[in-house]
Amino acid sequence: MAKIYSKKSLLSKKMKPEKEIVSFLLNYSKALSIIKIEDKNFEIIAN
């Protein structure tokens, strides 16, 4: 039979990201800009 995977006992408590990863993702999203020209998208990372 099908198992129920949404039980709290099966959830991992180590799902918290490290501060370095969060910082990297935030900085990356701040530097990323997407420019749409006609039907094309250009992704530019401004460092």
Fraction of residues in H or I helices: 25-40%
Q: What global shape is seen? A: flat
Structural class: alpha+beta
Give the uncertain stretches in residue-range form.
none
Question: Your description of this structure?
Answer:
The protein has 47 residues and is α+β, with helices and mostly antiparallel strands. Helices cover 28% and strands 26% of the residues. It has one helix and two strands. It has one helix at residues 19-31, and strands spanning 32-37, 40-45. Strands 1-2 form a two-stranded antiparallel ribbon. A hairpin with a 2-residue loop joins strand 1 (32-37) and strand 2 (40-45). The longest helix has 13 residues, at 19-31.
Summarize the structure.
By secondary structure, the protein is an alpha+beta fold. Helices cover 28% and strands 26% of the residues.
Task: Provide keyphrases for this structure.
47 residues, 28% helix, flat, alpha+beta, 1 helix, two-stranded antiparallel sheet
Topology summary:
Elements: H1 19-31, E1 32-37, E2 40-45
Antiparallel strand pairs: 1-2
